Amino acid sequence: MPDFAVLLAQGPPLTHNEALSGVFGSISLASWIFLLVPQLVENYKQGSAEGISLAFLTVWFIGDITNLIGAIWAGLVPTVIALAVYFCFADLILITQCVYYNVLNARRAARKSARSAAASQDSPEQPLLGRRDSSNLGLPGSHRRRSSAQSAHSRRRRASSLPSIGEENVGSREWVKNALSIAGVCIVGAAGWAIAWRTGVWIPQPTDNDVSGTDPALGAQILGYVSAVCYLGARIPQIIKNQRDRSCEGLSLLFFMLSLLGNATYGAGILFHSLEKEYIITNLPWLIGSLGTMVEDVTIFVQFRIFGNGEQTAAIA
């Protein structure tokens, strides 16, 4: 790990606010780079993407596209544009994985249903079974509803008992692992900023409005607000899905923890850089998009706490 005292002493002079702005911005960058990895791993382990809402990912992808176009239009620095391109490609990878698992599991379910129907028709006891289930004839979806009711009853029975010591230990280990991951991202981000500043890659940006010379294009500002609206609206389908299913099973908690960290440090990086009115107005779309979504991330954390992986449904149902 680099010696931050030595790096700070050797670099050009800068104020505490400039240093904090740079550190927070770098931590935010590290959060966004690793953001989608936990959910990709969770989907792979589950062999399914049923837990995450495709509407959530689609609206988020639209927000990243408008963010990229706005960054190019406004002529932002190449690193910002490169990061926006990375976001779009990462979104496509996660969306592609989710679509793949959804299609694959739908085909498996269809084949299993066809085999079950064929086996039931070939069985000599089929007429008896047909009479026994005659109450469900002509009612599409009745078997599905009965299965859902049985599954809900099973969840209630499991939830009615106290969690075992092993389950509590697993949950504790998961929280510790997530906390260590967040700490690691913060360390990587801070170290990355120190190295970038020492090597001259990162330079404090002037806060004097006269130095900037040009104002961002109106179209870029509009795209910034469109992107902010998309980011704010993207999590709503996921929140609704969690509430409807009364479960957060299949979602990676670390995914949303990194999102909260990235949004918080991004907003802090802007605010520590300058509190001048014109500067705040210029960056208002990105402040709204980052700080506003934090409220929705906290809502999802509350759902994780209440619903868990579906075992706690009985307390609400």
TrEMBL record:
It catalyses: L-histidine(out) + L-arginine(in) = L-histidine(in) + L-arginine(out). Gene3D superfamilies: 1.20.1280.290. Residues 142-159 have a biased composition (Basic residues). It is found in: Membrane. GO terms for cellular component: lytic vacuole membrane. The chain crosses the membrane at residues 20-41, 53-74, 80-103, 179-197, 217-234, 254-275. It is a multi-pass membrane protein. Keywords: Membrane, Transmembrane, Transmembrane helix. Residues 115-165 are annotated as: Disordered. It comes from the Eukaryota. It holds the Pfam family PQ-loop. Belongs to the laat-1 family. This is Vacuolar membrane PQ loop repeat protein. It comes from Aaosphaeria arxii CBS 175.79. The lineage of its organism: Eukaryota, Fungi, Dikarya, Ascomycota, Pezizomycotina.
